[in-house]
Design goal:
Layout: E1 2-5, E2 20-25, H1 35-45, E3 50-54, H2 77-89, E4 94-100, H3 102-113, E5 121-127, H4 133-140, H5 147-164, H6 166-169, H7 171-175, H8 181-186, H9 190-201, H10 207-214, E6 227-230, H11 244-252, E7 256-259, H12 282-298
């Protein structure tokens, strides 16, 4: 279910960090094998941290799913299972929870939904998430910043995963009459795919109801753990209007921070030349700096 890296190397900046675990949650259709996860894990391990990265259901080609569905955009059960396993394996570890894009939404929801384990969490970091799936779905249909093109690509990636695990996650629902297979494969955007497949398989009456369930927006006030939100101003998928809700809470809550770099795109934050970017990104370094700062401040 998750990929585990425990080769703790030299402590960064000469700090005695103790036992610290970073629990990573990737973005939509992504897993521990994606480049941005691998580069973050590499730097974290070489900075003295243990890492675990969730593999969303259906995202690993060499692992067959055992459920009748893929991951959801806001379900926290799989991430919660990973964190629980980490706490059982390492009862004294300090946990830092980090989510990327869709994973940022899941991490935020999980922290808000689990106040009874909040004392185990040092920090939560959410990167490039959209907070409100209902509002975000409408914005993704627009052509501003080529969002509609990105949406088409994401939809095709979802369909690719569905085809990869067809016998488990599609065929039973087609056979039962729940899903119209022709409509499913003809979907050109996530709203259509989610209305035809995702919301039905997960037991929701409408796609709006499903998106409302997935959104962390309504739970931000419940967060009791220090939290950092990172949203770049030039993110083509997450326009500024979506992260204004995070700004509101960051202004009101002393342990909540919103960082809005001018550039970075959606999980980009590359450094170096255009043709030969550095393998370690600005975001990777920022994550380590935030982790070190939180450990100094709260421990």
């Amino acid at each position: 279910m998750f990929t585990y890296c425990c080769e703790n190397c030299d402590q960064s900046e000469g700090l005695d960090l103790g036992d610290v675990t970073l629990a990573l949650c990737p973005g939509i259709c992504n897993s521990s094998e994606n480049t941005y996860i691998r580069s973050c894990v590499w730097l974290a391990c070489h900075s003295g941290f243990r890492c675990a990265a969730l593999n969303h259901i259906g995202t690993l080609n060499n692992v067959q799913v055992t459920s009748s569905r893929l991951f959801t955009y806001g379900g926290t059960a799989e991430y919660a299972a990973m964190v629980s396993k980490l706490m059982a394996l390492h009862p004294d570890t300090k946990l830092i929870l980090i989510g990327f894009s869709m994973g940022g939404n899941i991490v935020t929801k999980y922290i808000a939904e689990c106040p009874f384990t909040a004392n185990r969490f040092t920090l939560g970091i959410s990167i490039c998430q959209g907070y409100d799936a209902v509002q975000g779905a409408t914005l993704l249909l627009q052509w501003n910043g080529l969002r509609r093109l990105y949406l088409y690509k994401i939809t095709e990636n979802m369909k690719k995963l569905l085809r990869s695990h067809y016998d488990k996650v599609v065929l039973p629902h087609v056979a039962s009459g729940l899903v119209d297979e022709k409509k499913l494969w003809s979907s050109t955007n996530l709203l259509s795919l989610d209305d035809t497949y995702t919301r039905k398989v997960n037991g929701f009456n409408t796609v709006e109801e499903y998106y409302e369930f997935c959104s962390c927006r309504k739970l931000l006030s419940e967060i009791s753990v220090p939290m950092v939100f990172i949203n770049s101003v030039d993110d083509p998928l997450v326009p500024n209007s979506l992260w204004e809700i995070a700004r509101k809470y960051a202004e009101e809550k002393p342990d909540m921070l919103l960082i809005t770099p001018k550039h970075g795109g959606h999980l980009g934050f590359m450094e170096g030349s255009f043709f030969r970017p550095n393998s370690i990104t600005w975001l990777d370094r920022l994550i380590i700096e935030l982790c070190n700062a939180a450990l100094k401040l709260y421990h």
